[in-house]
Structure prediction request, 345 residues.
Amino acid sequence: MGKAPRRAAPPARRASPAIHPPVIAVTSGEPAGIGPDVCLALAGRAFDARVVVLGDRAVLAARGARLDLDVPLADFDAAGAPPPGTLEVLHRPVAAPVTPGRLDPANSRYVLALLDAAVDGCLAGTFDALVTAPVQKSVINDAGIPFTGHTEYLAARVGADVVMMLVGGGLRVALATTHLALAEVAGEITRAGLERTLRTVDAELRRRFGIARPRILVAGLNPHAGEAGYLGREEIDVIAPVVEKLVRAGLAVRGPLPADTLFTPRELRGADCVLAMYHDQGLPVLKHASFGRGVNVTLGLPFVRTSVDHGTALDLAGTGKADPSSLFEAVEMAVAMAGHERRRA
Prediction:
């Protein structure tokens, strides 16, 4: 039998007219994962922005051929955008050949080089926002590079105090701590750190989301929010005093509330964000409500950064089964947040 004809990518829908559309940088992430797959799908969708993918052009072309997608690639030129349906690429070369689904520590520095190039572009004003496809933390560490996640890497890269927040399913959930072993969480929740986190969430919801007076619910750390001290004193000694201080300062903050009843319609009604004390306290609820369409947002950076809510899905790389919905949502949110930033300028 002859080779089946290649199927064309879905026709691009034209974006609504904009005099100066924002330029969104999208890092393609771990090259052996689904990052290249979902980035190719961006060519078939129109945004009110220019979308530029940072990655190895040959890897993207090879993945497109494997998926039987006819996606034209064009080198990024800050002076002008290519025709609709073309994927703009800021080329950075991989260090070793890429096989879908097979990790290679040799390409770990390439993954970080994409992030560095995107950050430099955002700080220089070339890009208006950064969107990240997933990376594989384990293989970066296997390469001898300490790495706990995008959020922590970007914070260190620009010297900022940041907060991770996921958005989806009608919820916004921010985290007081991120990628820590559970045994380390209580020691990391301090009055100074919690106050800084809540002030960052409040300021960024105003600045990036256009919410005039954000209403923030604060979860307790322990079961039943400590049960008046019988199940832990963090609520009494740390969380409640910070909430009371910020209420006196004029912030619309309420808590600490038991996490097992916080995520109920009655409690969430009218709230703009929940602050969970640790990663797996808040994110399972949000991902249940929105998995595949959720967006990870880093608050506190000097530029907008969003990301997908899923991992590298090595088993799906190059199969045509990867769902780009979360990446689409992440780009749309980056465009909207960049718009709020422009209107404030």
